[in-house]
């Protein structure tokens, strides 16, 4: 049996690995979503939202302030609550910026179950922090919304049991509604605060 030279095998393997991981930039679903969304800064899509107490709005309506945008749902069993707890710590530390310069926006990916009343009750129980807005997608997830979320760098996968697996990034949008920073869910609150203070003049 004849064997290919080790160098040829290695080159072929590296070529396949490079293609499979989009040039070695992608090793996870999160990384793939961010890579597909493109480089920063990038325009955020005009997502249609409903905010309890305010009614229909869009992501574009928040232009003029920096926005820390996250996605969640109330029935989430784990990571959504961890991200929210970290954001609570960050929000408390960003005095002087919130809400005049920076607003926190948490958007539910589960509008069927996360009604306006449910979101309002949840937020009141959390203390209704100043400068933090909670809302939901204006309609159930469909292909158009999934495409818009993908433009941000968010992947979504709804399972048969009602669980919504999704990217748990926090996105910083600038005054023009562009994504200028993406923060991973494991980033400590103090690091998030420092990054926001650097980004907001």
Task: List the defining traits of the structure above.
alpha+beta; 2 domains; 8-stranded mixed β-sheet; 10 strands; 35% helix; globular; two-stranded antiparallel sheet; 201 residues; Glutaredoxin
Concise structural overview:
The protein is α+β, with helices and mostly antiparallel strands and 201 residues long. The protein has 2 domains: 1-27; 38-199, Glutaredoxin. It has helices at residues 6-20, 29-37, 79-93, 116-125, 143-152, 189-199; strands at 42-43, 48-51, 55-58, 66-72, 102-108, 132-137, 156-158, 164-166, 170-173, 178-183.
Structural class label: alpha+beta
Q: Hey, roughly how much beta strand do the residues contain?
A: 15-25%
Strand numbers in spatial order across the main sheet? 1-10-9-4-5-6-2-3
Determine the N-to-C terminus distance: 67 Å
The count of helical stretches stands at 6
Please count the beta strands (DSSP E, at least 2 residues each): 10
Low-confidence blocks of residues:
12-27
Looking at CATH, the homologous superfamily of the largest domain is Glutaredoxin
Order of helices and strands: HHEEEEHEHEHEEEEH
Residue-averaged pLDDT: 86
Largest sheet: 8 strands, mixed
CATH architecture of the largest domain: 3-Layer(aba) Sandwich
Instruction: Please tell me what the overall shape is.
Output: globular
* CATH top-level class of the largest domain: Alpha Beta
The domain tally reads: 2
Helix content: 25-40%
Rounded radius of gyration (Å): 19 Å
Q: The CATH topology of the largest domain is what? A: Glutaredoxin
């Amino acid at each position: 049996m004849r064997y290919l030279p080790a160098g040829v095998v290695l080159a072929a393997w590296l070529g396949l690995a490079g293609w499979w991981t989009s040039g070695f930039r992608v090793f996870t679903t999160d990384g793939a979503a961010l890579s597909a969304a493109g480089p920063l800064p990038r325009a955020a899509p005009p997502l249609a939202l409903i905010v309890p107490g305010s009614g229909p709005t869009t992501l574009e309506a928040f232009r003029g302030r920096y926005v820390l945008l996250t996605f969640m749902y109330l029935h989430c069993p784990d990571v959504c609550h961890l991200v929210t707890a970290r954001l609570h710590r960050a929000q408390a530390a960003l005095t002087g910026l919130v809400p005049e310069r920076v607003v926190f926006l948490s958007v539910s990916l589960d509008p069927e179950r996360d009604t306006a009343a449910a979101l309002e009750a949840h937020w009141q129980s959390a203390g209704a922090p100043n400068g933090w807005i909670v809302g939901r997608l204006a309609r159930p997830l469909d292909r158009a919304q999934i495409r818009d979320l993908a433009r941000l760098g968010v992947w979504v996968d709804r399972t048969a049991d009602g669980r919504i697996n999704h990217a748990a990034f926090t996105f910083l949008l600038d005054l023009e509604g562009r994504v200028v920073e993406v923060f991973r869910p494991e980033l400590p609150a103090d690091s998030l605060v420092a990054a926001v203070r650097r980004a907001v003049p």
